[in-house]
Design goal:
With 280 residues, the chain is mostly beta strands. It has helices at residues 108-118, 156-168, 234-240; strands spanning 4-10, 19-21, 23-27, 30-31, 37-41, 60-64, 69-73, 80-83, 90-95, 98-104, 122-126, 151-155, 183-186, 197-202, 205-215, 221-222, 227-228, 242-243, 249-260, 262-265, 270-274.
């Protein structure tokens, strides 16, 4: 049995919960609706992240009417539905200290809702029409409000291998959602086989390798509760997945660019082009 698509997930609001689907259209910046909205600091436009605001994990956005509206839900607060504003008052926004342009503000109701949930003055913004942002790496591609790449791919075999190591050390397994992938692969013979995939044909889409996905503290956040529970899985990854070329950070999964648009569905066969760069 070969490699296939196990799950597909997009994340409408950067840092918030994802929406798992049976099929998805894929464009330049990844799965449709992925990271098209972002929560920012009301004072300076810098992005809010689970790195410092783990409560984002329990915010569940739902895309309505093909992207014309957004329903926001979180424990302990009343849900809110807001119209998406593709044009309107622009707000300068930044990621990791770098200005990425101006983004349409989504209004006071959304701002007040997120400010209440996070306990910090926030605004909600949307990708502007004509937004054009480059990724980086072997195949840079284009990206919306994701950190730097269009699609994050992880294999189930990689998670199984990681959890085996955690269990051997006396810890409990972690779920896949800790890593917030867009595409999960089934059928890889080895853990971290995705490291060696240079192109991936699946459905009518082609992805191309950009970089290995380096990890921060977000995988230590329980995505069901919005509480950082560490030290796993980062502690175990630190023992065998250090990346000297990326500042000695740990890696898990690959980040990819979209080089051919199309559609993806759960169960689609995945045909990779391989590069043999196995580690000793």
């Amino acid at each position: 049995m070969g490699i296939s698509v196990r799950t597909l997930t997009y994340y409408p609001v950067k840092g918030c919960a994802g929406t798992t689907v049976r099929s998805a259209r894929v464009g330049d910046t990844g799965l449709e609706h992925d990271r098209t909205f972002m929560v920012v600091n009301a004072a300076d436009g810098s992005f809010r992240s689970q790195r410092t605001q783990p409560a984002l994990a329990v915010v569940r956005p739902e895309v309505l009417d093909g992207g014309a509206a957004l329903r926001l839900s979180a424990p302990g607060v009343e849900s809110l539905t807001v119209d998406a504003v593709p044009e309107g008052p622009l707000r300068p926004v930044s990621l990791f200290g770098k200005d990425i342009g101006d983004a349409p503000d989504q209004g006071d109701a959304a701002a007040e809702w997120f400010s209440q949930v996070l306990g910090a003055k926030s605004r909600l913004v949307r990708v502007a029409r004509g937004f054009d942002r480059d990724g980086w790496g072997e195949t840079p591609g284009k990206v919306a409000f994701a950190d730097a790449h269009a699609v994050l791919v992880v294999s189930q075999a990689s998670l199984d291998g990681l959890n085996a190591r955690i269990s051997a050390a006396g810890g409990g397994p972690v779920p896949m959602d800790r890593f917030r992938p867009n595409v999960v692969l089934d059928g890889c013979a080895d853990a971290h086989a995705e490291d060696r995939m240079r192109t991936l044909d699946m459905g009518t889409v082609r992805l191309a390798y950009s970089v290995r996905a380096t990890r921060c503290v977000v995988p230590m956040v329980d995505q069901a509760t919005g509480v950082r529970s560490g030290p796993e899985p980062v502690r175990t990854l630190s023992a065998y997945r250090r990346e000297p070329e990326y500042g000695n950070r740990v890696s898990f999964g690959l980040k990819a660019a979209v080089v051919r648009h199309g559609t993806l569905a759960v169960g689609d066969v995945v045909l990779p082009e391989w590069r043999d760069d196995r580690r000793d």
